[in-house]
Specification:
The protein is an all-alpha fold. 81% of the residues lie in helices and 0% in strands. The longest helix has 29 residues.
């Protein structure tokens, strides 16, 4: 049996489910924000900051950020696996992407929660 060192024991079905679940979360968040903007005709700073100051919106935003990072990681992993055949270069690129994704998550937490 062939095992892929970069997959960490995941299967194609696992990636498929994660991609679809994260896409649903991203779609729901986008639809919600578009609907909110459409229904708030004079969108002011107070309305916008009031939306993001509520706990459910902070949690929804954080879940969406994690879903975006999962979605992007699987996509980047698939592209790098398909097109970058040099193992060391692929490892460096994947490590770089993971570090950037972790910094995005950290900055997202700081921005949303004001930590």
């Amino acid at each position: 049996m062939v095992t892929n060192a970069a997959s960490f024991g995941r299967s194609g079905v696992h990636d498929y489910i994660l991609l679809r679940a994260s896409a649903v979360i991203l779609a729901c968040y986008t639809i919600f924000l578009v609907g909110f903007i459409a229904c708030s005709a004079p969108l002011t700073f107070e309305i916008w900051s009031g939306l993001f100051s509520s706990l459910p919106m902070k949690v929804f935003t954080l879940i969406t950020l994690v879903a975006l990072l999962i979605h992007a990681w699987i996509g980047v992993w698939q592209v790098l696996t398909d097109y970058v055949k040099h193992t060391a270069l692929r490892g460096v690129l994947q490590f770089t992407f993971v570090m950037v994704a972790i910094s995005y998550l950290a900055s997202g937490i700081v921005i949303v929660w004001g930590v």
